[in-house]
Structure formats: structure tokens, C-alpha cells
## 1
Amino acid sequence: MRKVSEKPGSIYCLRDLLEKWGIHEERWSHMSRKWRCVIAKTVSTNEECLDEILEEKPCLLGKELVSEVHKAAGEDGIDLLTKDGNNKLPRKKLAFNSSWGKPGADLIHEDHLTPIDKFSDVLDHESDNPRNLQMFHRNSEDEPRIPILPSLLSWPSFMEEDSVSLDKATRLSQKNALTTWHLDDCGEFVFQTALPVKESRKQNSLIGPNGRPVMKMFFTVPRKAYDMITQDQEQNRNQIFAMLDLWNIPDNHLPSDENDIPLITLCLVEEAGNPLLMYPNLPHTVLTVQDSVLIEERRASLFFLDECVYFVHRGRQSTAPPINYDFFKILAQEESETDKVVNLIENRLATLQPGRMRTRLLNSLKALGDADDVFAISSATQKRVKEITKDCKPDGISLGCDDLIASVKSQKLGVIQNLLQPTTPPKYFAYGHVMGAVVFGPMRTDQQQATLDRKAFAAEFDFLHSGSPKIDEVINALPAGYGTVKTGVAEQTKEDADLLDELF
């Protein structure tokens, strides 16, 4: 029996784990052994959950929070969608193929989407391009008549009381389907669980740390690693996905200092098991281990409005803007609605003693007051917010996204500041792309030198070419820096950005 015996919180070589666990060879055979990972913790109390959240980490929670979901789903979540008259869709939906969003994939075509008119079409086991279908429950007449199971989720009490529900979704996925690196839509928390499946579907399963078959693996990295994962400016410039290829980078193409390489938190979502609470704005890619159905709800927390502000600034970098939920549209347009939120937060502050939660909420309020380029806020309310938050000081927790927002606003095409390991002076590195796969230059303490590295890249290989024998030659000719480089080459693929509102 394949079983996850590794301890959450300990650091492991990601490639070694995937190979040991019997994951498809395509996912680890070309992966660098320098990728380190920790397995996400499973927590049993609100206090333990809060510890993980305030450290900006995803975590798994107690099964009692999703017991009603699993009960309502019955013996098999896949049968729930594909049997008893539910299989036929009222209108065609678009399923992601796993080739969607790979480095080099075109943003403006739909070659890597599959129109389907039945749920069962997602599970085409003769296809070498496995599929995902994510269907949001938005009270449309065109929605399939299936139970809205996300409505039965029980959030941790401290999250449910101070948050706004934004969206609910059901996701059917085929084994080995891959969802590329992305952020969720508006700086919100996402709470999700895998539905039960019958015994005949559990043959040769990988048993997770909580004793049930693993359905999906979420590979997440810290927010500060975003620019290493996805290069929005290059993506916009060429209308091609520009990002790091986790699965195809050799050891000698990663920085020599392990602190310059993002530490991956690996979240293992088990069948009818512990639900996953995803912290906002963590870049993540998702691998489906077995045919499965996940359901989810998305909520914006009043304690974390700074995450929403940061996401808006990220979204402004994209030529294909993400969904903007009604809650945020109203706050962006109506000063009176922003005033109501400020009043809610002020009333909540009155109930909190000095400590982590009060500090967190003060910081959220401060972000709201400072974001007059995001939210509609009157000068009087802004003045009141500044008075309330004037004594807000660090309390051993993250105090928002000011540094990340500043980084987004000051980005230069082709050069990234290393935020994973803050130093004085800061470190920078250049990047280029080959078929959308990122190529990083050496770490520099001189931004001007990193800019020269970028020019050397641009002179010798082209974003749109499938490869260049000069890549390593160019890299080796650069003046020595703090680290080595990483490269990747991917085949060109295509996707239609006009369909993203439907898909996300």
C-alpha cells in the first residue's frame, strides 16, 4: 500500500516524495531535487487554525466542519454528478485540459479547452490530456440541477462571523489533471473538501496523513515568490503564459542558496477527509491524484482586507483582469458602503482585547483607509480610520502587504527584486523566457547589473523561440553573482482568455 508517512512541518525533497508515493513519472522525472517542501498541518482547534493563518499558511481542519457535506453527497460524489439525470448539462460548459496555461500557451485561443455537454465527458480516460471542470453556483437558469453542497460547509467560527461569502463551486477532475500556477480571484479565503467515492474507485490509492485516499495535491508557495513564479509584464507583452515550470528544472539551474528558492507547502486533500483552508494570494498549482469531486466556498474576511487590496494591484498588472465580485465593486463605487464596512470593523474592534486578532483587524482597517485608489472612501472616513489605526504596531504577525504592493508598483520589465530573503542592500536578478519558460540570471546587489544581464538575455534568445543552444553559453558568460540560474523550455500551447470569467 502506498502511504504518506512523512510528518507535517518537516522539510523534504519534493521530487523524492512524489517518486516514493508513486505519482505519475511525468511529474517528477525532470524535477530538480532542490525543490523543498513541507506537508501542510492538520489542526483541530480554532486557535491552531489561527496560528497557521497568521503565518500566512494553508492548513487542513477537522472533518466535523464538512460532515454535512459528505453526508449529503452520498456514497459517491462522481455518481452524484454523472448518474440519475444529473449528467446532462443544460448548456455546454468548457473544461480545462491539462495543457492549459503551460509556459508558452497562447492567452487568446481556446485549443486547450474542451466543450462538454455531460459531466461524464470530463472523465475521458483514453485522453492523454486530462480535464478539469470547475462550475460556479451563481443562480443561473443554465446551471445543472445538482445540490449546492458548498452551502453546507461550516467555516471556523472566527472566520464565518467576520467574512462575506463571494462564490461557491463544484469541481470535477480526471486523474492526472493539472491546473497551472494561479491566484484565487479577489484576495479571499477558499475552503474546500473532496467528496466521498465508492470503494471500487479507491484501488491502489495513495493513503494520506489522515488515513484516507489522496484526491488532490495543492503545491503552494509564499506570496513573496509570486514574481519568480509568474512574470505578468512579459505575459502581457507577448500574450503568452510566462512562468516557472516546476516539473522541468534541473538542479544546476536553481540558485545555489536554498533560501532563494521558494519553500513549497504541499496540501494533501483526502477523500471525504479533512477540509483545506487556503490562505489568500498564495500562488499554487494543483495536481489531481484520482478522479474526484471537490466543492468549495470563497469568503472575504474583514480581518484581511489588505489581502484584497494587494490582489487588486496584482490584477491591474494583467491584460486579462480576474473576476471582480459584487462586494468589491460596491466598495469601489459607493462611499456609503465603505463607511458601513468601517463601522463594522470599528464595532468589532471594541470586542477585542489587545493581541494578535486586534492587531490583525487594525491592520486590515489601515489598509482599507490607505487604499483610496481601490475603494471609494470619503475624506472624513479616511481621517477617522487614520485616527483609529495610528497606534497599530507589529505584534509578531504579518502586518499586511505594503511591501508587496510597493514591489508591484515599482516593477521593471525583466528584473525582479528577491523578496524571499530580504537583504541590505536588496538582491535582484534578471529573467528572460524561452517559449514562456523562465530563465533567471545570477543574484545581484546592483540593480543596474541585473539590468545588463537582462539585455544579454534579450540579445541572444527570443521569447517566442522553442529553444536556443546559446542559453547556457550566455548564462555562463555573465559576471559572477550570488547564485546560479534556472531555465525551462516548454512547447507552445494555446488558451482563450475571453472565456476566463466562465472558467474561474
## 2
Amino acid sequence: MNFGNVVLLTLSFGLVKCIDIKMVAPYEHGHNGAEPCLRICTGTTGKGSTPWQLYGTEGLYVDVDMRKCAFRSDLTPVVTTVLAGESSHWVTTGGSQIYHLKSSSFRIYIHLRKDYGNIRNLYKSCKWRIDWQAIGFTC
């Protein structure tokens, strides 16, 4: 069970009434924001349903939609990602490198060297996906 599921279960059973979030250093200089305005938003592109796009002969990319997080459009959230799957994702690169980050979306590129196999055969059968967490301001 991952941390996100533990937090959701804990909140569901009423064991915790709130989560205390403290931003100790502003991501952008001069934009401190009020701590009650911080939001943690998590998601996945979906096991077996990620809309991967081919990128050259050894790569893939996916655009991740974060609009439901409703982060402020003038401040960029802090995002972490991981490439997850049932097999072979450990031989790739790029699963935690974020491109084109905005308050509503970002892109991830995945690369697999040919000597590890054909990426076109692996990503579907191994059900690769991007799991992500974002922290951003809502006010």
C-alpha cells in the first residue's frame, strides 16, 4: 500500500481531521502564499490506459493533465513523478524528468536503449504509467 492510499484511508476513517502542510521555502521568490492555500494533489495516468505517444524509435512521451488540482495559474506547482509498471520499467530513463511544467499539466519523456528491447513492445504489455504528486497553491 502506498503512502497516498494510507492518507486516504486515514482520512476516510476519521482518524485524522486535517493534514498540516508547511511551505518552508517559496518555490518562486516573492510568492510566499498562505499555508492554508497549499494543496497536495496526486494522480496516475492509469495502469494499462496511459495514452503514450511514440517519440522517435526509442522513446515515448505522455502529457499529464492536472487541471482537476485547480492550482493557481500564476504559480508553478512542485511535481514529482515515477514511472511504474509490471516489468522492465527499471531499464528506462526519464520517468522522473518533467518537461513543459505548468499549473495544469506537464510532459514526461521515456527512453529505452535498443539493447534492452523494443519500447514499442514493452510499454503496453508491461502496463507502464506515470504516478505523480504535486504541491501547489490554490489561492
## 3
Amino acid sequence: MAEHNDRKRQEYERKLEEQKRREMQEKQERRKMELEKKELNDMQSKYKEMQRKMKEMEERMKGGGSSSKGVKRDINSVEARTFPGEKRRPEPKQRKGGSDNGYKRRIESDSEEEYDSELDDFIDDTDSKVDISAEIRNI
């Protein structure tokens, strides 16, 4: 009889252990499912956010880029973009105190008084039949 009771008690303990093991597995599976649901919800919210951003970008592109309210910009009012390493030309300076009507400074005097005798060295007065400018072009 004692053996029978021992066997019954061992069977009962095995059933309890088995039941505990099943409950632990179920808890682990529930936790795993909850984590997966959370990840899925996070991914869905990121996807919705990306869709919203895409719609905003599409609207901006339809609206003519960065111009506001679909109004086209004047080409001359937009500053050119600079690229890395690009050398920019200096902007023309405005002259102080004078009306800028497009006239540049000119030498006022072309008189004979300021004749430079050294300039004669550069002027070819000979009657040679060699065209110097043509020779220079050929070079």
C-alpha cells in the first residue's frame, strides 16, 4: 500500500511539474507575442509617418519646389548655389558719390602734349610686307 501511495504521489508531482512547465511556456509565448505586437505597432506608426512625409514632399514638388503658394519666383531674384570648392567671382562694387550711367572712366586727354617717345619702339613704321598680326595668329 505504501508503494502504491508513493507511486500516486510521484505521478501527482510529475503532473504538477508538467503543468508548471506548460504555464511557463505559455507565459513566454505571451510575452513574445506582446513584444512582436509592440514592434508591429511601432513599424506601422513609422510607416504612416513616412507616408505623411512623402505626401508633404509630393505637395511641395507639385507646388513648384520651395516657392510658397504656387507663385513662381523671378529668376533674377534667386541667388545661384555654390558648390564646394567653387571659386566665386567678386560682385561688382558700387561707386561712391556719382551717378552710374554705365560710363566708365576715360582718359580725357589725347593731346600731342603727352606723346610718349618710347612708344615709337613698339610701332612698326617700316614698309615690310610681313603681316605681324597674321604671324602671331599662326603661332
